[in-house]
Structures are given as structure tokens and as C-alpha cells.
Amino acid sequence: MEKQTELEQNQHPEQMSYGAKVALIGLFGGLIWSLIGYLAFYFKFIRVGPALILMPWALGDWKTTYIGQLVGIAVISLLSIGIAFFYRMLMQKIHIIWAGIGFGFVLWILVFYVINPFIPGLKAVQNLDLNTIITSLCLYVLYGLFIGYSISYEYAEQHRKSAS
Predict the structure, then answer these.
(1) How many CB atoms lie within 10 A of CB 60?
(2) What is the spatial distance between Cα 151 and Cα 65, in angstroms, rounded to a whole number?
(3) What confidence category does residue 151 fall into, taking pLDDT thresholds of 50, 70 and 90?
(4) Rounded Cα distance, 112 and 109, in Å
(5) Whole-angstrom Cα distance, residue 153 to residue 79?
(6) Which residues have C-beta within 8 Å of that of residue 18, sequence separation ≥ 6?
């Protein structure tokens, strides 16, 4: 009996792969920051909620309701997994906080300037109120910071463990 207990104590739990950690970082980053974005929309800090991601498709009027906001949160969470892998591919080795902040800023530029013409219901940045611009920019920057710093940290941890 003592031999079995000793063997059980020497066993280490199976570690999650780096790719799985990146996927979880993306999923939870999208979930957390889109929920915060929904709260900002609900309290009227911004004029666009997470359902903005559904606007290019003709899905009916339900996409502007509470259900549409929840579906938007789910879609953003899933899309965020791909964004996390994109960050991993490009910038995982950069261990400074500004990389994630810059990544979030670039995402904001992509959504509000580049993809804007394809999203009905999203006004041009020049026509948005200042609260919407500042709040959405802050949310995107914090999202980028979360994704960037988390992935860079996991990358450093993987290399630290493999070196020892």
C-alpha cells in the first residue's frame, strides 16, 4: 500500500499544450471583453454592442435584441480564438506590454476604419460620439493587452520549462 501511495505522489498532472492554452486565452479574452463591451452598451457608454458582429448578415430583427447581444458575445468569443492564434503567429516572442496595446489599437482601426463599410448600422468614426470612440478604443486596447500579455507569458513559461 505504501508503494502505491509513493507512486501516486510522484505522478505529475498532465500539462495542457501551448496551443490549447492559446485557444483558451482567446476564448476567455473574447468572452470577458465582449461582456464588458455589452455592459458599456447597456449603460450607454457606447452605441454599438457585441451584436455589431452580426450586422453584415441578414438574420432578422432579433440580432438587435438582448438575444442578439448574447449571440454576438458567443461569436466574438469564438472569433477571438483565431485572433489569439494570429497574435501567437506574429508576436508571441515580444514580451513588452506595448505589443498587446498596439495589437488592440490595430484591431480597433481594422474594425472602425477598414471593415466599417461592410457593417450596416456602424457609422463612420467621424460621425460617432466621443464616448463611443473612447470607450470602444479602450476596450479594444485592453482586449489586445489581455491577449498579448497572456500569450507572451505562456510562451516564456513554455521556454522556461523546456530549458530546465
Answers:
(1) 10
(2) 34
(3) very high
(4) 5
(5) 21
(6) 154, 155, 158
CA distance 91 to 121: 33
- Pair 92, 76: CB distance under 8 Å: no
Q: CB of 141 within 8 A of CB of 106?
A: no
Reported as a single tens digit per residue, the pLDDT across 68-106 is 999 999 999 999 999 999 999 999 989 899 999 999 999
Residues 132-151: b if buried by 16+ CB within 10 A, e if exposed: beebbbbbbbbbbbbbbbbb
Among 70, 62, 68, residue whose Cα is nearest residue 31: 70
* Pairwise CA distance, residues 153 & 157, whole Å: 6
Residues 6 or more apart in contact with residue 54 via CB below 8 angstroms? 63, 68, 71, 72, 75
Structure pTM? 0.88
* Residue 60 grid cell: 432578422
| Residue among 28, 120, 121, 138 nearest 83 (CA) | 28
C-alpha cell at 120: 450596416
